[in-house]
């Protein structure tokens, strides 16, 4: 049975699934869909055109789907949508913005933990099983791939991609793409430090898969020759392990943009 607190305000067009809990002083705007089993704690705000899957928990003060932070924005400005998958934990005072494009979507996948004070900007994609720690700030148009872990107060420039099962240490400033399976720290520029061995275990990789990533890391980052040259040499090998290929592709794609942000090449020209 749904449990709606009498102080909650819910637009008549909103659609709530089975066993949704809406706590005191929550606000749910027009054209919102919330899947079964979701819990909205105290003072949660859900903006227009937000679609939420099953069994998500929103902690007090989360503001989800309100207008992006842009100059010239008015309350009646038209923006795109926000989609959130299933089984996410979204902690206190998290803000997630919809797309700036009327036909665009900000996307959050499944089984993510987004901790206190995190900001996710417009047009971002967060895949699955990520951990985004307290007060991390993610600019617009970024992508965080499956299993990535961002420690506290990580700052991300627009259009940066963080590769799957990688780890960014606290206070890292990410202004270029991060390859999969690595640890980075520092800022402007951040530096690749090591293989994220804990991430490989979390990913469920076999010993053989882990060793392939470790050997590839040595070939890419421990030789004195340029990184891009090393990546192209690995790419030319036959029968490349799929995880090694993901590392190589990330490096080669990032090199196509002068600041190492591949998604910049896909920037829309209509805004």
Structure in words:
The chain is α/β, with parallel strands linked by helices and 271 residues long. It has a single domain, classed as Hexapeptide repeat proteins (UDP N-Acetylglucosamine Acyltransferase, domain 1, 3 Solenoid), CATH 2.160.10. It is 16% helix and 24% strand. It is built from four helices and 28 strands. An eleven-stranded mixed sheet has the order 1-4-7-10-13-16-19-22-25-27-28. It has a nine-stranded parallel sheet with strand order 2-5-8-11-14-17-20-23-26, with no helix packed on it. An eight-stranded parallel sheet has the order 3-6-9-12-15-18-21-24, with no helix packed on it. α2 (207-221) packs across α3, α2 runs parallel beside α4 and α3 (227-235) crosses α4 (242-254). The chain is elongated. The termini are far apart.
Could you write a compact summary of the structure shown?
With 271 residues, the protein is α/β, with parallel strands linked by helices.
Distinctive features:
271 residues; alpha/beta; UDP N-Acetylglucosamine Acyltransferase, domain 1; 11-stranded mixed β-sheet; 9-stranded parallel β-sheet; 4 helices
Strand and helix layout:
Layout: E1 3-4, E2 9-10, E3 15-16, E4 21-22, E5 27-28, E6 33-34, E7 39-40, E8 45-46, E9 50-52, E10 57-58, E11 63-64, E12 81-84, E13 89-90, E14 95-96, E15 105-108, E16 113-114, E17 119-120, E18 125-126, E19 131-132, E20 137-138, E21 143-144, E22 149-150, E23 155-156, E24 161-162, E25 167-168, E26 173-174, E27 182-185, E28 191-195, H1 197-202, H2 207-221, H3 227-235, H4 242-254
Parallel strand pairs: 1-4, 2-5, 3-6, 4-7, 5-8, 6-9, 7-10, 8-11, 9-12, 10-13, 11-14, 12-15, 13-16, 14-17, 15-18, 16-19, 17-20, 18-21, 19-22, 20-23, 21-24, 22-25, 23-26, 25-27
Antiparallel strand pairs: 27-28
